[in-house]
């Protein structure tokens, strides 16, 4: 049985767990809170240590798979982050992890990467709310807005029926882009604009649950705007189902009605797997070689983005 160390990288956390043919080895699951504004070394140290703690629960590990937000060069393992974790931009992540894992069980393991929203959608397709759905659109709501378009389990990143690179975050809404408004920072901004404090989504949801009218208004508008953006994608992609996950989806009752009203005629469900989806989806890929070639570039020297 192949054992994969799966990792999920976010702006507020890094999770890691061992995944086998029967799913997650629950005892191995580790979750470390981070701050996306940390310097590169601190972020990478947190990632590496979380992985080592998770892998200590097994006698062996065959490969490492990371679910990572974009923009990211998933073939070469180079970060091009523009809205969060900017301290990592230009760094060869594989080489940085290899250095930190030297002398450990992970030192020689193949490392590969997959977009976090695609990993989420694949996890739901294989094990969760989207099991077996032919055309599945997955949405992740967190420190950013992610999207995965699957047809028969395969990611779609080009073509007339999906946005460029399969990303909805750049679609226009309220004079800006979707990622600015339909995310944790967007919720904070909306609440403060109405006179509230800058709160995290969990705190804002707690306020809404205690009859805070402003908080409830923010979530209603969030659902309306998310529905408006997804309607554009759904009309083109014609998904058989839309599954919504990410940390903000935990506040589902506060925005689901407005979201579904915008998406009448489409099936919209909340994630069944939540945090597990990314780990399971990342692990369900063949990993036969390292995703990036070794180079002589000193660690910490940014690589240049290849011309498009």
From TrEMBL:
<feature type="region of interest" description="Disordered">
    <location>
        <begin position="285"/>
        <end position="308"/>
    </location>
</feature>
<dbReference type="Pfam" id="PF00480">
    <property type="entry name" value="ROK"/>
</dbReference>
<dbReference type="InterPro" id="IPR043129">
    <property type="entry name" value="ATPase_NBD"/>
</dbReference>
<protein>
    <submittedName>
        <fullName>Glucokinase</fullName>
    </submittedName>
</protein>
<dbReference type="InterPro" id="IPR000600">
    <property type="entry name" value="ROK"/>
</dbReference>
């Amino acid at each position: 049985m192949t054992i994969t160390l799966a990792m999920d990288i976010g702006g507020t956390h890094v999770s890691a767990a061992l995944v086998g043919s029967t799913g997650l080895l629950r005892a191995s699951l580790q979750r470390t809170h981070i701050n996306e504004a940390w310097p590169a070394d601190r972020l990478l140290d947190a990632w590496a240590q979380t992985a080592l703690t998770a892998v200590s629960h097994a006698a062996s590990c065959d490969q490492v798979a990371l679910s990572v937000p974009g923009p990211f060069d998933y073939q070469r393992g180079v970060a091009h982050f523009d809205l969060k974790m900017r301290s990592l931009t230009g760094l060869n992540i594989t080489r940085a992890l290899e250095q930190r894992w030297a002398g450990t069980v992970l030192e020689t393991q193949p490392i590969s990467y997959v977009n976090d929203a695609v990993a989420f959608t694949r996890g739901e397709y294989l094990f969760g709310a989207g099991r077996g759905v032919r055309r599945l659109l997955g949405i992740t709501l967190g420190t950013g807005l992610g999207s995965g378009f699957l047809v028969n389990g395969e990611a779609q990143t080009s073509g007339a029926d999906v946005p460029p690179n399969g990303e909805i975050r750049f679609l226009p809404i309220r004079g800006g882009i979707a990622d600015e408004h339909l995310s944790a920072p967007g919720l904070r901004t909306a609440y403060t604009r109405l006179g509230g404090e800058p709160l995290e989504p969990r705190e804002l949801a707690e306020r809404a649950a205690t009859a805070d009218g402003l908080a409830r208004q923010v979530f209603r508008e969030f659902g309306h705007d998310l529905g408006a953006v997804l309607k554009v994608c759904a009309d083109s992609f014609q998904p058989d189902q839309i599954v919504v996950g990410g940390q903000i989806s935990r506040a589902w009752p506060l925005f689901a009605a407005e979201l579904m009203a915008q998406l009448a005629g489409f099936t919209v469900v909340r994630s069944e797997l939540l945090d597990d989806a990314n780990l399971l989806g990342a692990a369900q890929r063949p990993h036969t070689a390292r995703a990036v070639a070794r180079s002589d570039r000193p660690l910490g020297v940014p690589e240049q983005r290849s011309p498009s």
